[in-house]
Amino acid sequence: MEKVSKKSLWIMGGTLSLVLGMLGLILPILPTTPFLLLAAYCYGRGSDRFLHWLMDRSWVGGYIRSYREGRGIPLKQKVLTILLLWLTIGFTIWSTGMIWWLKVVLCVVAAGVTLHLIKIKTWRPEPPVLIEFVSSIEPVETEP
User: Which residue in 33, 63, 123, 132 has a CA-CA distance of 20 to 30 Å to 21?
Assistant: First the structure.
């Protein structure tokens, strides 16, 4: 039997974390952010190629980069995440015949995730700077 290298274990851990993070996008009981950050960490230890692949993905790269650099999460993303979380939890509670204490657990988990998201720094990108026109250009007057 072949020996598995440490780098391979880091890559496998990163891949498992990425899968769990993606499942967290649709399952409210799994947190997405910690798993995606863990995937980036594992890939960083195991393979630069995998890390660059993850960071270059438009659907997650900017999100991880902003979080790792301490900028936080954009307000729009926070609001959308909390809205989808509560819609999913509400639909699950309403549509299934769960016992009452399981419904309470789901609400407590959703409240905890909501508080965590609210506590994370909100990233507000700088507004684009408008380029000033050269002052020597004068407007042309038109005749009536």
Answer: 123
Q: What is the mean pLDDT of residues 8-37?
A: 85
pTM: 0.58
- Distance separating alpha carbons of residues 11 and 26, to the nearest angstrom: 24
CB contact at 8 A, 73 and 116 = no
SS (H, E, C) the chain: CCCCCHHHHHHHHHHHHHHHHHHHHHCCCCCHHHHHHHHHHHHHHHCHHHHHHHHCCCCCHHHHHHHHCCCCEEHHHHHHHHHHHHHHHHHHHHHCCCCHHHHHHHHHHHHHHHHHHHHCCEECCCCCCCCCCCCCCCCCCCCC
pLDDT digits (tens, 9 = 90+) for 87-124: 888 888 888 888 999 889 989 988 998 998 888 888 77
Residue in the block written with tokens 């899968």: 19
Residues 6 or more apart whose CB falls under 8 angstroms from that of 11 comprise 42, 43, 46, 47, 50
